[in-house]
Design goal:
Largest sheet: 10 strands, mixed
Helix content: 25-40%
Structural class: alpha/beta
Number of domains: 2
Strand content: 15-25%
Bound molecules: D-mannonic acid, magnesium ion
Shape: globular
CATH superfamily of the largest domain: Enolase-like C-terminal domain
CATH topology of the largest domain: TIM Barrel
Low-confidence stretches: none
Number of strands: 15
Length: 405
């Protein structure tokens, strides 16, 4: 087998509808692989880490040695873990898996052990500035074929709410050159959430898999109270009920409610969720192929989670590029303890910049049969979409206290 030495590692930062960081690794036999290193609001940190600290170490390495390269970049960094480091490692890892599958002439999921299911069940985002607006959005996504829908609605008396767009544009929270300051009220939210779920169940019944994202806003006891108040609505999951740096906080939530819990989109290593999984404090782990160190590390997390009956629910917002989405779908197809995949369709401009083989139909996605992960990049067009600084908002309570966005 001809050796495939890495001869180039190029970082492409572009903003087709929103900022993305892409790594292109080219090998001596003329093939290339693509990886996604997008970290919403901190894209340039990952681009610099890749360009200035990782790329020089890759030149001359054997592209076939994926695990060894992962260990080299993780252990060799000395300063381990963290979102920037692990997104950079993820970009290299996914690019190398893309390369290896291309070289083998097969779709990535085949290289990962073949399919464990016919397709990847996905959930959509429904939102509304009012309950009626939310119900219309749920109805629209049911018409599109989704069997699982996340619901987020404006909370009466709260000016800004996570997951609800300003105006009629699709939801893109990183929308300003300096962080917007949003205001939050937990009491108003806690009163409204059950009313929202009551309205959705009353209109659509209980066949619909219903998800909701509390987005790190609650204290553990508030999260426990919310979970308890929603039990009658049989949620598929309540996400990010409380900030999860303190994994033990979930013991308190678990003591009070059987509402399924999902967490982990902000995690970047298995150590961030080790106790949550081993103590069965959660039901779904949300780590993504981009922010948690790539396919190589995400498979470890999924295997560990499988020992404890925890299923995957990978993060999949528009701030992961189509490369991240494509790689996630191959991963989702190939693991035994898949739960569900988040699906926020990208803007047309993004899809045009990242041509891809994956498809959506009737509530499920398929990664396609193209060799590799099946996602490309229109590299020549990148200079037409220069990086545009964009921050995620920050969040304060009504008295001005900094809170969690
Ligand atoms: C959200 C994300 O999709 C989700 O579950 O939590 O959209 C999150 O707000 C963004 O990824 C932040 O960049
Ligand atoms: Mg979330």
């Amino acid at each position: 087998m001809a050796e495939s030495k890495i001869v180039d590692a190029k970082v492409i930062v572009a903003c087709p509808a929103r900022n993305f960081v892409t790594l292109k690794i080219t090998t001596s036999d003329g093939l290339y692989g693509l990886g996604d290193g997008t970290l919403n609001g901190r894209e340039l940190a990952v681009a610099a880490y890749l360009r200035d600290h990782v790329a020089p170490c890759l030149i001359g390495r054997d592209a076939e040695r994926i695990e060894d390269t992962w260990q080299y970049l993780y252990r060799g960094a000395y300063w381990r873990r963290g979102p920037v480091t692990m997104a950079a490692i993820a970009a290299v890892d996914v690019a190398l898996w893309d390369l290896k599958a291309k070289r083998a002439g097969m779709p990535l999921y085949q290289l990962l052990g073949g399919r464990c299911r016919e397709g990847v069940t996905v959930y959509a985002h429904a939102n509304g500035h009012s309950l009626d607006g939310l119900l219309d959005s749920v109805a629209h996504h049911i018409e599109l074929g989704y069997k699982a829908i996340r619901v987020q609605a404006a909370v009466p008396g709260v000016p800004d709410v996570y997951g609800v767009p300003h105006g009629s544009q699709p939801y893109e929270p990183a929308d300003s050159s300096l962080p917007r300051e949003e205001t939050w009220s937990t009491p108003k939210y806690m009163r409204f959430a059950p009313e929202m779920m009551e309205a959705v169940r009353a209109r659509f019944g209980f066949d619909l898999a219903l998800l909701h994202d509390a987005h790190h806003r609650l204290t553990p006891i508030e999260a426990a109270a919310l979970g308890k108040s929603l039990e009658g609505y049989r949620l598929f999951w309540l996400e990010d009920a409380t900030p999860a740096e303190n994994q033990e906080a979930f013991r308190l939530i678990r003591q009070h409610t059987t509402t399924p819990l999902a967490v982990g989109e902000v995690f970047n290593s298995i150590f961030d969720c080790q106790r949550l999984i081993s103590e069965q404090l959660i039901d779904y782990i949300r780590t993504s192929v981009v922010h948690a160190g790539g396919i190589t590390h995400l498979r470890r997390i999924a295997s560990f989670a499988g020992l404890y009956g925890v299923r995957t629910g990978c993060h999949g917002p528009t701030d992961l590029s189509p490369i991240g989405m494509g790689a996630a779908l191959h991963f989702d197809l190939s693991i035994p303890n898949f739960g569900i995949q988040e699906h926020m369709p990208h803007a047309p401009l993004t899809d045009e910049f990242f041509p891809h083989a994956y498809t959506y139909a009737n509530g499920m996605m398929h990664p396609g049969e193209a060799p590799g992960h099946g996602v490309e990049i229109d590299e020549a067009a990148a200079e037409k979409f220069p990086y545009k600084r964009a921050y995620l908002p920050v969040c304060r309570l009504e008295d001005g206290t900094m809170h969690n966005w």
